[in-house]
Amino acid sequence: MPIDLTQLIKAYDVRGTVPDQFNPQVARAIGAAFARVVVLPEAIPGEPPARPSVAVGRDMRDSGPELVDAFAQGLADAGVDVIRIGLCSTDGLYYASGALDIPGAMFTASHNPAVYNGIKLCRAGARPVGQDSGLVAVRELAQEYLDGELPAPVEGRGEITDRDMLADYAAFLRSLVDLRGIRPLKVVVDAGNGMGGYTAPAVLGTAAGLEALPLDVVPLYFELDGSFPNHEANPLDPKNLVDLQAAVVEHDADLGLAFDGDADRCFVIDEHGDPVSPSAITALVGLREVEREKTAGRVPTIIHNLITSRAVPDFMSAAGAKVVRTRVGHSFIKAQMADNDAVFGGEHSAHYYFRDFFFADTGMLAAMHVLAALGGQEHPLSALGEVYEPYTSSGEINSEVADVPAARARVVQAYVTEEGAGPVVVDELDGLTVSHWDSHPQWWFNLRASNTEPLLRLNVEAADEDIMEKVRDDVLSLVRATENES
């Protein structure tokens, strides 16, 4: 059966089911295309080495080794050396790309079920490869190879070698946040059978040969298993936090950390078992990075996407930072991070980006900042969380609608064009954002259409819960109304 790569290679990465959408033949074609579209052109300027190199890592999925081998063959046939770093988190691959200053490929499908796998591609220095930065060209060339045939191996074929970089990754993170002097903390870590079970013992413990930290780590589901036998490795879904919440209370822990399948996202639970919002974590970590920048005599810049809490720009601006608001999605925020030389960036989805980590996202480094902040004072995490969560939000609510433009139009008519809607500010940076924040009562909402499904995603925030619930329910009634009702 012919394979249509438009179903596999999406806007930001490669992801699909194995073997019908993604198999060794496809992986080899993508490797060959990646070499010619991204790797070899980057190696031309200046005086490059005899052969450029690519770092390749993988998560714990059973399909990973075979797909990595095929991808590596495609690269090597094009004259590219391959450094296989083996099992790693996605931020572990970003570290390899940044530290070695070479392009990279991470084989993972994050939290998707076991039947899935995929690739996150990056240029040298962990710079992203997305639809506007080479991924479309990679897809088109790989499709040509699949529809015809792969080029013959070049003379001077690349070499494939193996290199373990876990200890270097762990040491690098520890160089960015020093946890040695904090008060002793007990932390439950839920790896969800994903790569956090591999990286947490190295970074927070002594598995990589580093000295012990004042941390008592209680492991939860550290066994690597791409079938995710205990729960989906997606902390964004509240049902996947239940085990961690119970364990924090049971062990009388100071906090809990939950990582997704490839461990590039981190969610935080306080000592009562309550989630701390990613916006609050963005504010907490952001303030630490702002103060560090100011101490160094630099004007700090912080990036946040448009559906993080208004508390984020409030706190950052009050601390003297320049604040840049961006669209939802890692490719947009990474671009803004680099363009603005931003020290830190945060998203509502618990992706956290650091200039010192090659402008890339790393859940583990964010977790270390939380541990440093908590361990550097005597208050419990719940008290810190309250400081950084002054407003109330709905979270992201998805509505399946038959006619997305019509549903959106009903909201526009009610809030933007009708008299009596009040003094609102409207922008369309990413979907429709309507803000009543400069008047009372304070509220805002964002309504965004999914790129792949007939869904509208709603986020609402207000200064108090009653107003948030009213705006939420009013907008949802408009979104979910039938054409006859409207």
From TrEMBL:
<dbReference type="Pfam" id="PF00408">
    <property type="entry name" value="PGM_PMM_IV"/>
</dbReference>
<dbReference type="InterPro" id="IPR016055">
    <property type="entry name" value="A-D-PHexomutase_a/b/a-I/II/III"/>
</dbReference>
<dbReference type="GO" id="GO:0005975">
    <property type="term" value="P:carbohydrate metabolic process"/>
</dbReference>
<dbReference type="InterPro" id="IPR005846">
    <property type="entry name" value="A-D-PHexomutase_a/b/a-III"/>
</dbReference>
<comment type="similarity">
    <text>Belongs to the phosphohexose mutase family.</text>
</comment>
<dbReference type="GO" id="GO:0004615">
    <property type="term" value="F:phosphomannomutase activity"/>
</dbReference>
<feature type="domain" description="Alpha-D-phosphohexomutase alpha/beta/alpha">
    <location>
        <begin position="7"/>
        <end position="132"/>
    </location>
</feature>
<dbReference type="InterPro" id="IPR005841">
    <property type="entry name" value="Alpha-D-phosphohexomutase_SF"/>
</dbReference>
<dbReference type="InterPro" id="IPR005843">
    <property type="entry name" value="A-D-PHexomutase_C"/>
</dbReference>
<protein>
    <submittedName>
        <fullName>Phosphomannomutase/phosphoglucomutase</fullName>
        <ecNumber>5.4.2.2</ecNumber>
        <ecNumber>5.4.2.8</ecNumber>
    </submittedName>
</protein>
<dbReference type="Pfam" id="PF02880">
    <property type="entry name" value="PGM_PMM_III"/>
</dbReference>
<keyword id="KW-0460">Magnesium</keyword>
<keyword id="KW-0597">Phosphoprotein</keyword>
<feature type="domain" description="Alpha-D-phosphohexomutase C-terminal">
    <location>
        <begin position="396"/>
        <end position="476"/>
    </location>
</feature>
<dbReference type="GO" id="GO:0046872">
    <property type="term" value="F:metal ion binding"/>
</dbReference>
<dbReference type="InterPro" id="IPR036900">
    <property type="entry name" value="A-D-PHexomutase_C_sf"/>
</dbReference>
<dbReference type="Pfam" id="PF02879">
    <property type="entry name" value="PGM_PMM_II"/>
</dbReference>
<dbReference type="InterPro" id="IPR005845">
    <property type="entry name" value="A-D-PHexomutase_a/b/a-II"/>
</dbReference>
<feature type="domain" description="Alpha-D-phosphohexomutase alpha/beta/alpha">
    <location>
        <begin position="168"/>
        <end position="273"/>
    </location>
</feature>
<dbReference type="GO" id="GO:0004614">
    <property type="term" value="F:phosphoglucomutase activity"/>
</dbReference>
<dbReference type="InterPro" id="IPR005844">
    <property type="entry name" value="A-D-PHexomutase_a/b/a-I"/>
</dbReference>
<feature type="domain" description="Alpha-D-phosphohexomutase alpha/beta/alpha">
    <location>
        <begin position="281"/>
        <end position="391"/>
    </location>
</feature>
<keyword id="KW-0413">Isomerase</keyword>
<dbReference type="Pfam" id="PF02878">
    <property type="entry name" value="PGM_PMM_I"/>
</dbReference>
<keyword id="KW-0479">Metal-binding</keyword>
